User: What shape does this take?
Amino acid sequence: GDVGRVASVASFFISRVDTAVDKALEEVGNTEIQGKIAIDNAKIAYSRFREIFSSERWKNLATGSARVQRPLWASTSSKNPVYPDTLYVDNLIGPDTVNTLPPATLDDFLDHGKVAATVETDVDGARRRIAELAELGIDLDAITNKVLDEGVAAFAKSFEDLIASIAEKRRRLLDDGQQVSASSGS
Assistant: This one.
């Protein structure tokens, strides 16, 4: 097929990761790096993204019209009221990224957010804090896998609920004798 027709993102849950990591940090008595690990994880992922999409292999694919798979920052509203409401938006701004911030967070960012390319700042510090987390015995991979599983399950349930709602509305319309048609767009 035509790789130029493929568009995709690689999604990263942000505040959900911090919520889980912060709890684990509290359990081991270290609150110093709370509220930082999710951003650090995303910055390290972005650094790897830049390496991959500046490689010779990628350049060869791009000449064939392949598109970059962009990082998508999901769950970027601050769940912890102690943290600034634009914490995750302010710290993950950079080229080729997507942020799925909710309307309230967008309003907060438009009101007092900081527009600056930040996703590539302090990556060495991010690596140090991630290493510190491991030294504390906290398994970030296990946490991110659990957050991923929970997030996928929540999105799947939302999708199933949407489909059920549409099916129910269709059934009611048909029961009322109304004509219902749909197009798949193909």
Observations:
- The chain is about 55% helix and 5% strand.
